[in-house]
Amino acid sequence: MAEPLLSIENLSAGYGDIRVLWDISLAVQAGEITCIVGSNGAGKSTLLRTISGLVPANSGRIMFDGANIANMPPDRILATGIVHVPEGRRLFRGLSVRDNLLLGAYLRKDDTAVKRDLDYVFTLFPILQERWKQDATTLSGGEQQMCAIGRGIMSKPKLLMIDELSLGLAPRLVERLGEALLEINRTTGITILLVEQDVITAFEIARHGLIIETGRVSKTGTTEALSGDPAIRQAYLGV
Amino acid sequence: MVYVQTLVNGIVLGALYACLAVGFSLVWGVLNVINMLHGSVIIFGGYLTFFAWHSYGIHPLFALPVVAAFMFLIGYVTQLLMINRVIDQPVLTTLTLTFGLDLILYNFMTVYYTATPRRVTLDLGALDLFGIAVPVDRVFGMVLALALTGLLYLVLRRSRIGRAIVAVRMDSAAAALMGIKVDRIYAITFGIGALMAGATGAIFAMVYPVTTNLSGTYLGKAFVVCVIGGLGSVPGALAGGIVLGIVESFAGQFFGPQHALTVGFLLMLILLVVKPTGLTGIKGYE
Fold first, then answer.
1. How many domains does chain A divide into?
2. Which residues in B lie closer than 8 A to residue A74 (C-beta atoms)?
3. pLDDT digits over B143-199, tens only?
4. Are residues A120 and A19 part of one domain?
5. Is B56 a member of any domain?
6. Claim to verify: residue A63 and residue A6 sit in the same structural domain
7. Are A155 and A79 in contact (CB under 8 A)?
8. ipTM of the complex in this document
9. Residue A203 is part of a domain; what is its CATH number?
């Protein structure tokens, strides 16, 4: 088996005295779509926030592309190729769709490639091109998620982490976004790590799955195998 | 005709107020810091400009960019080394810090320069436009003030660093995820605030006396302009400045100049009750 793009070893992290992640170990293979599922408060978002450097790691290693990135500042982690599309989109109010997308490319100096990536985002989500002048926070929920994902692509990531893709969106839109993720993965080869509460959606998009319970990884496997597991079927799929 | 003259005086004054307040407004909006230093930095810029003119014969127009750049550096370093350490604390903590720094700067200037009012006198005379007299140095000051304010607007709207400042203002955690070094942006923003204050000082040295006694007055003006116009936006500071200038001008005409200040503060109180977001109502940015 090839060296994984991201591998986390015995990671623990939290906020002040409150520990949220306990001894997390996991691996994400390059070029794949992997999902992390688990109930509310299981620590999924904290895990992403620790990887992207917003939350300090107390112990353990986060190996990405051969280097330990644990506790690096967020801008250096981004420069290594990890992009975090945060929960709730977090687009910048008062800035246009285009300016929001360009902020994704804040660290990049390759202007012509930035322009090309902007065109790619606009082909992927034509509605963003139509509304490029509009204040990004006045878009609909689904369009905002497109803009947030687009902003992530503009950072030219090797690993795109998306927190709660489906949050607050109609099923039809979630399906559309899922197709977009598959297309991004297929055409650009970007590895995707998807965090989802909606297990059915997550398993449809991703090939590998990890289940997190109370700050620990409880099960891993292909999503096909996981959806066949009786315990998971009962706990997460409601059948 | 006398009203037109008063109106023109008010607009000229208002442009100066806008320039005075815009840096204060930006710092408050982006960093959530009420910068008590602002008034003294204006005076400091004024002194530097005055002595460059008085001792070396350097025209204020040439002193201005140097003074502004110097103030940017001072502001940048102050934020990076001092204010950033407490930037996540409640607003009262940063206010106390800048208040303390203000005491140091203020008293340093009072001791070093003494509070004797000084002024750059360019003796440019007055323009006469259809019976309305406008002193040329004031018009010159107004043009400079508007140009600088406009330049700041363009920088915030069009440049990469401007986008980063706006992003940090709106959501500093999300800005960090874009690779923006938030503490650096804080330092740059505070530096720009000091730059605008220094430039204002250079402009004011041509039209008003330079004395430390005025530092509190200028800080008060910046405060009123922000509340009237709306916080943290260039158009807000511009609107607030012009409105305050016109109101003070007319208040001086009708009630006597000694009451102009009172009327300005009264206007601020009324707006706080009626429209707390300020005239432009922009809760956003710029």
1. 2
2. 176-177, 179
3. 999 999 999 999 998 899 999 999 999 999 999 999 999 999 999 999 999 999 999
4. no
5. yes
6. yes
7. no
8. 0.91
9. 3.40.50.300
Q: Which tokens belong to B10?
A: 């008010």
> Which SS3 state, helix, strand or coil, does residue A32 take?
coil
Would you state the pLDDT for residue B17? 96
Task: Tell me how close the Cα of A151 comes to any Cα of chain B, in angstroms.
Answer: 9
Number of domains in chain B: 1
In angstroms, how far is CA B203 from the centroid of its own chain? 11
Local confidence band at A239 (pLDDT 50, 70, 90 cut-offs): low
pLDDT beyond 80 at A233: yes
Q: Calculate mean pLDDT across residues B254-268.
A: 88
* Whether residue A184 sits in one domain with residue A151: no
Close Cβ partners of A104 (under 8 Å, ≥ 6 residues apart):
A83, A150, A151, A152, A153, A154, A155, B178
Residue indicated by tokens 């992003």:
B167
CA distance A70 to chain B (A): 15
- The pLDDT, as a whole number, for residue A212 is 92
**A216 CB-side CA count, 13 A:** 3
CA distance B178 to chain A (A): 5
pLDDT for B281: 64
Decide if A54 touches B, using CB distance below 8 A: yes
- Do A184 and A74 share a domain, yes or no? yes
Q: Looking at the structure, do residues A77 and A161 belong to the same domain, yes or no?
A: yes
Cβ <8 Å between A94 and B284: yes
Ranges B241-250, B252-261, B263-272, most confident: B241-250
Q: Rounded distance, CA A75 to CA A53, Å? A: 8
Q: Which domain holds residue B169?
A: 2-214
Would you say residue B110 has pLDDT above 50? Answer: yes
Instruction: Report if residue B189 sits inside a domain.
Output: yes
Domain hosting A147: range is 85-156
Residue B283 domain flag: no
Q: DSSP of B94-150, one letter per residue?
A: HHHHHHHHHHHHHHHHHHHH-S--B-------EEEETTEEEEHHHHHHHHHHHHHHH
